[in-house]
DNA sequence: TCCCTTTTTTGACCTGAGACAAAGCCGCGC
DNA sequence: GCGCGGCTTTGTCTCAGGTCAAAAAAGGGA
């Protein structure tokens, strides 16, 4: 178990690291007491499935620590990752009892879970939760649509640059907006997982990394740690405007 | 103005053709009276922009008749369509005042609009609406993710077959589920618009249609009307299981 | 430390879809 | 009926990225 995912035991909501960003972010104290009593934690080892497409979904929940992917597999083995699930992201869909996607832990993952039926009742009774769910769903929809542009129209090089900039943005969350200078990041995914996310092969991903490295756009400290000496220059390779 | 989009004048909600499927689907009579007083209709000619990315969104609304696309343009002209908006689909995002995508009418379109600020108040006060919004947002998220698999992993042939099956499904909505036999459909898009939706070029779309035609998978009556003699056979070309 | 496995890199070759170009088709206005 | 503009089809050539194969690194136990 890595350093980012300390063991969580009987933690209550008031000390929860995702309290202000998760589905419960806008709940008041009374509502949190109710959720606190309903919740339970589950852990998954890196590589383990959290949910299979087609399975009954008994629970919904939030990622407390670790990273998971939402993905779908074709019969012949082709795989597409539809999203990354990072701490505070929500898993599951109230109102549907069968999963439509596979969810896989790619690092050790801890979830804050609720039984689906009780959570659905809670959503129906608690505007703070249903409103927050809506907000999160619309954010995810925006992210999915941005990714559709990447998958449908960007070149391999633009895909990699866009992906790296997304990691930069996420690891800069909360800090002052960074659009210039250098930045150090750690990739949360293997080459293969990145390929599945961007609709490429792992060889193409590897080649594009090598090319960016030779050009000095990125500096690699090991396989996973990357320094971007000039964030603006990399942004210019994404094919997107910065708005 | 084509036959599917009759002029709408001072219609009230009770006779609205999308009353049972739109964002107002689960509203009770009192709520409908309120919405009825707030709403206004707007029409757009085929080809007209309904909304530009970056613009202030003054209104939100539902498609009453016609078809529109959600799309994004890159600086160099590459375009990706993220979704089709058909009658009962919702345009706009409460809680955000700037559009993130272009929305374009591809046939003549009539919208049932609300001023954004009043609609946001209504959402906050009306669980029926916020719950329905959530449901619709989650459905769109599922659709977007399905399309990500198509964009990232499917071949041109699979993309076309999947697209055709989507049209079959939509034009069969409400009827008995059709998974066998023959079916007649009308394409709502030009070759170019289909290409932008599927991440292809218009030439590739045209070639794939020709190939399917020569193989007898489809029969074309003009450019836009297509008969699919064997729906199951076409389904088998989509690369997806039928679940 | 040394295997053994997994991940990554690199090379050589191939191919599906893009780019460019030209011709065909169709509806519309005059 | 004719000519014009916007679609659509088809041909030819190119190339970005896929496929297959092998070598090189990086862990991670025992």
TrEMBL record, chains A, B:
GO cellular component, one term: cytosol
The entry's keywords: DNA-binding, Transcription, Transcription regulation
SMART domains per record: cNMP, HTH_CRP
A molecular-function term among this protein's GO annotations: DNA binding
Pfam families listed in its UniProt record: cNMP_binding (PF00027), HTH_Crp_2 (PF13545)
Domain HTH crp-type: 154-232
InterPro entries in the cross-refs: cNMP-bd_dom (IPR000595), cNMP-bd_dom_sf (IPR018490), Env_Response_Regulators (IPR050397), HTH_CRP (IPR012318), RmlC-like_jellyroll (IPR014710), WH-like_DNA-bd_sf (IPR036388), WH_DNA-bd_sf (IPR036390)
Residue ranges of every copy of the Cyclic nucleotide-binding domain listed in the record: 23-140
PANTHER family for this protein: CRP FAMILY TRANSCRIPTIONAL REGULATORY PROTEIN, FUMARATE AND NITRATE REDUCTION REGULATORY PROTEIN
Protein name (record): CRP/FNR family transcriptional regulator
Native species: Yoonia ponticola
Lineage, uppermost ranks: Bacteria, Pseudomonadati, Pseudomonadota, Alphaproteobacteria, Rhodobacterales
